Amino acid sequence: MSSRIGDSMKKMFADYDQLRGKNVADLNIQFWDLIVISAGDEAQRAWFEKQLEQKEAMGDLPLGVPVLCISDPDGCRIGSGGATLNILKILDAKYNEELYKWRVLIINSGGYSKRLPSHSCSGKVFIPLPISPTRGGPYQMLDLKIATSLPFLPCMQPGVCIASSDDIIVFHMDQVVLPGERNGFTALAHPSSLELGTNHGVYVLQTTEEGCALLVERRECKEVLQKPSISTMKERGAIFKNSDGVEMVYSDSNFWFTSSISRKLLEFYKEVEPLEEELCMYSHLLTFLGSMENKYHFNQLRIKDQGEAGDLKLRFGSLADKVPLDVILLNQSKYYHLGTTKEYLDGMTAVEELREELNIQSRVCCRLLGNKDDISDKIEGVMLNSTIHAASQVHRNVVVEYSILKEKVKLHPETILSSVVVDRTLEIPGGFLYHTVPIREEGDERYVT
Predict the structure, then answer these.
(1) Measured between alpha carbons, how far is 188 from 202 in angstroms, rounded to an integer?
(2) Contact between residue 119 and residue 4 where contact means Cβ atoms under 8 Å apart
(3) What is the overall mean pLDDT for the chain?
(4) Partners of 131 in the β-ladder
(5) Is the previous residue joined to 274 through a cis bond, with omega within 30 degrees of 0?
(6) Contact 124, 166 (CB under 8 A)
(7) Please, where are the H alpha helices in 117-226?
(8) What is the sign, positive or negative, of the torsion defined by CA atoms of 51, 57, 58, 59?
C-alpha cells in the first residue's frame, strides 16, 4: 500500500508545484477562494504574516487567493472552536454575503508548540518538510495542507474546511467526486489501529454489505467518539476488521461544513462572546453529530462538566444536533500525528512507511562544505535548508534544519539541530534538541540557544 500511496502523493505534489508562483485565476483548476491560518495572539500573527510574505515573494505559494492570518482575541485561551468562531466573525464583517458563496480553508495553528519547541516561534504550519519540490522552494507544512486538500474540492459545497497544522494524511484514491453530499458536515476518515484511535477522533459508521472493499466511499456516521478507550470503541460499534482480519477503526482528520452551518456558528458566537472557556471543534462539536440518539460524549459531558463551562459546551455542541455527518472513507490512506518532538523526529527519519509515502529525501536545499575527498558516507540523517561540513558524521535518527555546520561535527541519535551555527569541530550527544532563537534586549540583537 505504501508504494501506491507514495506514487499518488508524488503526482499530487507535482500538480501542486505547477500552481506555485502562478495566479490560480489564470488556470483552469478548482482552488480555495480563501485560506486562513489561525494565530494564538497578535505577536504570533505578525510573525506568521512575515513568513507568508517571504513565501509569496519567493513564488512558493499559489497566487491570486487571499491567505489571511487571524489571531485569537486577547484574554484566555479559546481553543480551536473559539478560534474558528472568531475567524467566522471577522470574515463575515470583511466579506459579507460573498463569504457564504466561497470555499474556505481554515488551518488551526494557534498553539505554542510546547511539545515541539523548535517550532514554537515559527509555528507548526511552517514546519519544514524534507520533500523535494519540482518547482519553488522547500516544502513546509502549509504547502502539504494545501496540496492534500485540493483533491476534495470537487465534492465540497460552499462552506468551511477545518484542518490541523500538526498532522499528515497520505492517501491513494481512484475518484474525487462523490455524489450525495448533504447540507451539513463531511469528514475524512482513515483506517487506523485501535491504539491510534485512543488518542484521536473515531467514527462509528453505518455498516454495509460491501464492507471496506472500495478505495473511496461515503458512509453515514452514527456517532463520533473522541479519544475513546478500546472498550468504549467495542461497546459503541466502532471497530471493523480489514481484509486480513485485523481489528481497526476509522480515525478523523479534516472535515468541512456548508455555509448554513457557518451562519449558525456565527449567530451562536454573537450571543456568547467574549469566550472565557476553551471550545474544541473536535471534542465539543463533532461529538454531537451523527444519527444515533444516545451519544456517548454528550452523556459524558452532561455528567462530568457542570457549571457555566459545561453549559457553554453543551450549547456549542447542540448546534450540531440532528445535523447529518457523512464520512468519506479513504481505505488506502494513513494518518500521522507530528505534534511532539519524538513524533517529528521519528516520522522524518525512522518510519519507513511515511518516508516512502511522502517521498521524503535525506537532503533538501542543502550545501556541503569542504573538499570532495572529505565527503563522508556517514551523513545519514535528514538535512533541511542547511550547510554541513562534508566530513561530518550524522546518525540516521537526526534532523538538521536551518543550521550551518562549518566544521566536522559528529551527531548522535535522537538529535535535532535547529537554527544552530557550529564553527568548531564538535561531538554532540544524542537525545537532545538544540534550537536558537533571536531576541532583542534593550535594543540589541542577541541569540539564545
Answers:
(1) 11
(2) no
(3) 91
(4) 360
(5) yes
(6) yes
(7) 141-149, 194-197
(8) positive
Looking at residue 276, what DSSP letter applies?
Answer: -
167-188 pLDDT, tens per residue? 999 999 876 656 556 779 999 9
User: Given strand 409-411, what is the order of strands in its sheet?
Assistant: 393-394, 409-411, 426-428
Q: What is the pLDDT of residues 389-407, one digit of tens each?
A: 988 999 999 999 999 999 9
Say whether pLDDT at 211 is over 60: no
Query: What's residue 289's pLDDT?
Result: 93
pTM surpassing 0.90? yes
Question: Cβ atoms within 10 A of the Cβ of 447, count?
Answer: 11
Q: How far apart are CA 84 and CA 444, in angstroms?
A: 38
Whole-number Å distance between alpha carbons of 404 and 338: 25
- CA dihedral over 10, 14, 15, 19, signed as positive or negative: positive
CA distance 98 to 76: 31
Which pLDDT score, from 0 to 100, does residue 296 have?
85
Cα→Cα distances 342→170, 327, 351, 414, Å = 20, 30, 11, 8
**Secondary structure of residue 369 in the 3-state scheme:** strand
Task: Please name the amino acid found at residue 318.
Answer: S
Give, rounded to a whole angstrom, the gap between the first and last alpha carbons of the chain.
41
